[in-house]
Amino acid sequence: MSLSGSRIVIIGGSSGIGLATARSAAALGARVVIGGRSLDRLRSAAEEIGGDVETRALDASDEASVKALFDDLGQFDHLTVLVPSAPDKSASAKLVNFLDMEPGRFEQVFRNRFWSQVYGVRYGAPHMSRTGSIVLMSETSPRKTIPCYSGSSAAAGAIEALARSLAIELAPIRVNVISPGFIATPGTDNIPAERKAAWDRMAALQPVKRLGTAEEIAQGMLFLMDNAYATATVLDIDGGYRLT
Ligand SMILES: NC(=O)c1ccc[n+]([C@@H]2O[C@H](COP(=O)([O-])OP(=O)(O)OC[C@H]3O[C@@H](n4cnc5c(N)ncnc54)[C@H](OP(=O)(O)O)[C@@H]3O)[C@@H](O)[C@H]2O)c1
Q1: Does ligand 1 come within 6 angstroms of the Cβ of 182?
Q2: Residue 72 falls inside a structural domain
Q3: Facing residues of 134 across strands?
Q4: Is residue 81 part of a domain?
Q5: pTM of the prediction?
Q6: Which atom, in ligand 1's list, is nearest to the CA of 37?
Q7: What is the DSSP code (8-state) at residue 176?
Q8: Span 220-243, mean pLDDT?
Q9: What phi and psi, each to the nearest 5 degrees, are found at residue 67?
Q10: Of 108, 73, 103, which Cα lies nearest the Cα of 90?
Q11: Which of 9, 17, 62 to mutate to test the pocket of ligand 1 (most atoms within 8 A of CB)?
């Protein structure tokens, strides 16, 4: 891979898929900037990553916080923004069927899964090198979904549509989307037990009969950043879940 020396900004880089991406990128010689809300989490992630790592505390669901980060950061090459739908365990338990969900919850999912990425691109792209790329985060649900995921399905579908427009408008910066299936991460621990049990049942029906790992998604992330001919691509890495 040619990511050695690249500067990669990973908002949500202190855990799960973001941390795995940061670790792999640093191992390839990239300079990594990881962002998240908790300074403690960022510090321990930086220790784990090793190599050339900067840490930045921000709330990516807050526009002013994202703007302040990029005003200060300087030039960089690649960007990804990885904020989960629910900020914690209690919010995750409130993601229920559409008619039973408080409208504010739906809006919160959009703030986390859609607006955080919009803010990242809006304020990050002007500082990116012309050979750089953005990897937006979707999930399998715009193509195959299950109950209780209406907010994240809608936000992910909107992100995939936005990516196609941005791939044209931001060129030569490339814009791709990664779409993971069910991946075991620390964030997965926030999911209520019965929904987690449903994940396990669905994974058992997939061609690859298990949950994915953060490292397997990180490989896809780095592939999309590295491959200079990939743009407007949606990369599904889901163990074949879409076919079940
Ligand atoms: N795991 C899956 O099965 C799966 C499947 C499809 C898509 N995804 C998506 O992949 C992304 C990463 O998921 P994950 O499972 O790896 O999550 P995770 O292990 O919970 O990690 C989330 C990261 O985002 C940071 N974060 C959370 N809220 C933030 C905010 N408002 N502002 C800035 N940083 C914030 C967290 O740090 P702090 O808590 O310190 O802020 C942490 O570094 C998410 O967008 C998720 O929706 C995950």
Answers
A1: yes
A2: yes
A3: 79, 175
A4: yes
A5: 0.98
A6: 41
A7: E
A8: 98
A9: -60, -45
A10: 108
A11: 17
Alpha-carbon gap, residue 153 to 142, rounded angstroms: 5
Q: What is the mean pLDDT of the chain?
A: 96
Say if 215 falls within a structural domain: yes
Q: How far is the CA of 35 from the centre of ligand 1 (A)?
A: 11
The token duo for 230 is 């990939």
Beta-strand relationship, 76-81 and 128-137: parallel
Domain CATH number, residue 206: 3.40.50.720
Report the pLDDT value the prediction gives residue 195, as an integer from 0 to 100.
Answer: 87
Report strand pairing: 234-237 vs 174-180: parallel
Strand partners, 94: none
* DSSP result, 58-99: --TTSHHHHHHHHHHH--EEEEEE---SSSSHHHHHT---GG
Which two three-digit tokens encode residue 190? 């926030």
pLDDT tens digit string along 116-159? 999 999 999 999 999 999 999 999 999 999 899 999 999 999 99
CB atoms closer than 10 angstroms to residue 84? 23
242 belongs to a structural domain = no
Residue numbers of the domain that contains 131: 7-237
Structural domain total, the chain? 1
Whether the CB of 180 sits within 6 Å of ligand 1:
yes
